[in-house]
Fold TBX1 factor.
Amino acid sequence: SVQLEMKALWDEFNQLGTEMIVTKAGRRMFPTFQVKIFGMDPMADYMLLMDFVPVDDKRYRQVTYAFHSSSWLVAGKADPATPGRVHYHPDSPAKGAQWMKQIVSFDKLKLTNNLLDDNGHIILNSMHRYQPRFHVVYVDPRKDSEKYAEENFKTFVFEETRFTAVTAYQNHRITQLKIASNPFAKGFRDCDPEDWPRNHRPGALPLMSAFARSRNPVSSPAHQ
Amino acid sequence: SVQLEMKALWDEFNQLGTEMIVTKAGRRMFPTFQVKIFGMDPMADYMLLMDFVPVDDKRYRQVTYAFHSSSWLVAGKADPATPGRVHYHPDSPAKGAQWMKQIVSFDKLKLTNNLLDDNGHIILNSMHRYQPRFHVVYVDPRKDSEKYAEENFKTFVFEETRFTAVTAYQNHRITQLKIASNPFAKGFRDCDPEDWPRNHRPGALPLMSAFARSRNPVSSPAHQ
DNA sequence: TTCTTGTCACCTAGGTGTTAATAT
DNA sequence: ATATTAACACCTAGGTGACAAGAA
């Protein structure tokens, strides 16, 4: 069995409509897809991998009211499917004991919109919705292991990790939640760093408090 | 068979008497021990590892003449041997094909003088000389593989990678060669960055030209 | 108008030798 | 006198969203 790490954060993003940036060079996901794994044979070899499947066959577009607060509309049929690449966890293959003894993190996985990418990144269509999937493949030591491929892998889907691929954020709340929760975006926070641990209530959507103190609150006039 | 990478650089250091810093937290080696490997069975599994053996059973000490240009003296018998740790290359185990298709770099290996280290670093005695060794272990698929341990591994020693473990550099030329050749020490270079590619003659000890232009040349009075 | 691209300042994360203080 | 330690400035390396310019 598999347990999604940082589920509370994923839920918070999912509630707003998660967006993931895709770039030509490749962009990591945030939150990072991380899992804890249970019940493997400690001595057996496994490959761990991810792929991404379209949630629907729609293309989306964005509408803007009065400079902000825009929302998604269906823009028509999906674009032609991208090459269906998979991302093997770089530690693959490894023993079950190795996989289970710590959190497995797919932080090397990158998303791109470059159909000709030759860096092995996952290719996605911008403005389309995707469902990440996690696969565990048992490395069968038998000679004719190909025949047992069906029974030697198991797939796990966490619906809260669905997202829309974008080249630029569409929902300002997503931007603010990313800034509040991704350490690499700390440069865009404008709350007092000392303020953060004090206001942090462990139970209830802690990161949204940072959002409330964010750079461009909806309630105050924008400075443009 | 195994080929040492950056052999020219190793030779240049070795000629001066290579020193490697050891710290409590652990310090990487520079140059990094890197090899190209040939002749493995592409489909077989191998473990790659390194260890460090004393070159002699001596302890060294340093004497200083007129503020600089010091040299090594034997200071007596070696201190009690440190725990004989080994460092497994983090990609171990992997297939021969994987190991052979690119340079294998031991850049995660760190040296420490902390006898109680619990980070898995290599523990060495400061002021002692060591010989790095590189071992290739064939992962024998037979049940009673322990019995064949002797024939299932091969050791490679490159004498030009010998070094003295130190807590601070003793030979100023070593310091300058490290500064000239280690990208992370670029902050201590004082030569014109544009000057470097121009004066670079591909044949003859290129890094020594940087040393000649170094911060504290022997020929000019030290500013203390 | 909507979407994409490239550049940028600002971060995280961590590898350098220097230096001053301390230990032996 | 010699050896070790810890803090530090200055790097490499690379992950952020902002922004302006360009493309569709």
